[in-house]
């Protein structure tokens, strides 16, 4: 393993004032997004949509793009590989390598992320296609007391450790994504407790499996109230609890933390990231690795029409710029309200 090369890529992924675009929706997920805007989910429409994002000015604020297997192999309309478009925009191509979740035997309602079989071969192939980092998402469901089970936390953390070690051996920086879901009516205290349990188990596995912390990026959820909780914690409390959790659980050797948005509104995902970054100085770069919170606005504007491409690119660029400001703790509502 060339740790110095991994560390260089990891640091570039969290370059100050930039963040990561999660454009790795699997075929089923992108179909749901396209259904919502009445666009047919064909390979060409998926290509056109993603090409539109990768050619936008907003890429100035994007350090890396997480791709799905189909996308990393696709060419733009003029024949240029999409990977090249990303590189030409000064961004690093990455790849989602997990193969989704499956029900976890003995643990009703819980899942384990799969995809370790033949992963070493797949990583070598993705490296050859231009990927320099990878992503694996563990999904941790929670309720007020019973879930997550010790089993679910352990098997998901173990898989993240196996994946991360294999990535580093293949020369790819692993994004380690343990997502504690925000669905449900639990309060923010429950989210904090469960996220802390999960995070501690993940770093235990990373140590056991000899993952070099300097050559990885952490992609966690923020500590927030469950979406259906009657009492919603405010921005200050979310920032305070998220920073407290990171300080307790994340070693300073990790170069950066790139949060997922997890279903937060665009505005809240930005406001939370900004408030978190105003709590500095902290040992890690703290930025975004958003899917929905970067793409919901351009998807609505685009609606599958060529005539809307420019406006959709402006909508994407605006969200990317706002989150880039938040990654420096420099976002304001005045800037938010400037025309997209
Ligand atoms: C872009 O969405 C990714 C999930 O795709 P699948 O569910 O189809 O595998 C997801 O892993 C994403 O990268 C993260 O959850 C961050 O996205 P959000 O929308 O939570 O910011």
Characterization of the model:
The protein has 340 residues and is of the alpha/beta class. The chain has one domain: Alpha-Beta Barrel (TIM Barrel), CATH 3.20.20. Helices cover 46% and strands 14% of the residues. It contains 13 helices and 10 strands. The protein has helices spanning 3-13, 27-36, 43-54, 69-72, 82-88, 119-128, 150-169, 188-208, 235-249, 266-277, 292-302, 309-327, 333-337; strands at residues 19-22, 62-67, 92-96, 101-103, 111-113, 133-140, 173-180, 217-218, 256-259, 285-290. Strands 1-2-3-6-7-8-9-10 form an 8-stranded parallel β-barrel, surrounded by 8 helices. A two-stranded antiparallel ribbon has the order 4-5. Helix 8 runs parallel beside helix 9, helix 9 (235-249) packs across helix 10 (266-277) and helix 10 packs antiparallel against helix 11. The longest helix is centred in the middle third of the chain and has 21 residues, at 188-208. The protein is globular, with a radius of gyration of 19 Å. The protein starts with a helix and ends with a helix. The mean pLDDT is 97. The structure holds 2-O-methyl-1,6-di-O-phosphono-D-mannitol (5MM). 2-O-methyl-1,6-di-O-phosphono-D-mannitol is lined by residues 22, 24-26, 29, 66, 100, 137, 179, 260-262, 290-293.
Which key features would you list for this structure?
single chain, 13 helices, TIM Barrel, 14% strand, 340 residues, 10 strands, binds 2-O-methyl-1,6-di-O-phosphono-D-mannitol
Briefly summarize what is shown.
By secondary structure, the chain is an alpha/beta fold. It has helices spanning 3-13, 27-36, 43-54, 69-72, 82-88, 119-128, 150-169, 188-208, 235-249, 266-277, 292-302, 309-327, 333-337, and strands at 19-22, 62-67, 92-96, 101-103, 111-113, 133-140, 173-180, 217-218, 256-259, 285-290. The protein is built from 13 helices and ten strands.
């Amino acid at each position: 393993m060339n740790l110095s090369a991994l560390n260089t890529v990891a640091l570039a992924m969290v370059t100050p004032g930039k963040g990561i675009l999660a454009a790795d929706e699997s075929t089923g997920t992108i179909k749901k997004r396209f259904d919502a805007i009445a666009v047919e989910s064909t390979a060409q429409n998926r290509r056109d949509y993603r090409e539109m994002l990768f050619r936008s000015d907003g890429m100035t604020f994007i350090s890396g793009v997480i791709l799905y297997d189909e996308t990393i192999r696709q060419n733009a309309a003029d024949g240029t590989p999409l990977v090249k478009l990303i590189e030409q925009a000064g961004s690093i191509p990455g790849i989602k390598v997990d193969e989704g979740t499956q029900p976890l035997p003995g643990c009703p309602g819980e899942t384990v992320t799969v995809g370790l079989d033949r992963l070493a071969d797949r990583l070598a192939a993705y490296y050859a296609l231009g990927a320099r980092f990878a992503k694996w998402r563990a999904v941790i469901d929670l309720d007020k007391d019973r879930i997550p089970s010790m089993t679910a936390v352990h098997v998901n953390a173990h898989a993240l450790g196996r994946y991360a070690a294999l990535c580093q051996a293949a020369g790819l920086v692993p994004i380690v994504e343990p997502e504690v879901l925000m669905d449900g009516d639990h309060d923010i205290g429950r989210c904090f407790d469960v996220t802390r349990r999960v995070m501690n188990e993940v770093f235990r596995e990373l140590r056991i499996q000899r993952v070099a912390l300097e050559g990885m990026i952490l992609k966690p959820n923020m500590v927030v109230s469950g979406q259906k909780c009657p009492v919603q914690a405010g921005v200050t409390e979310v920032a305070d609890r998220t920073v407290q959790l990171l300080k307790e659980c994340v070693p300073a050797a990790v170069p950066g933390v790139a949060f997922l948005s997890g279903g937060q509104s665009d505005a809240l995902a930005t406001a939370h990231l900004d408030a978190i970054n105003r709590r500095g100085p902290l040992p890690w770069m703290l930025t975004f690795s958003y899917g929905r919170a970067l793409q919901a606005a351009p998807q609505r504007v685009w609606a599958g029409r060529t005539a809307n491409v420019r406006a959709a690119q402006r909508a994407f660029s605006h969200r990317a710029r706002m989150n880039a400001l938040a990654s420096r703790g420099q976002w304001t509502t005045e800037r938010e309200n400037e025309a997209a």
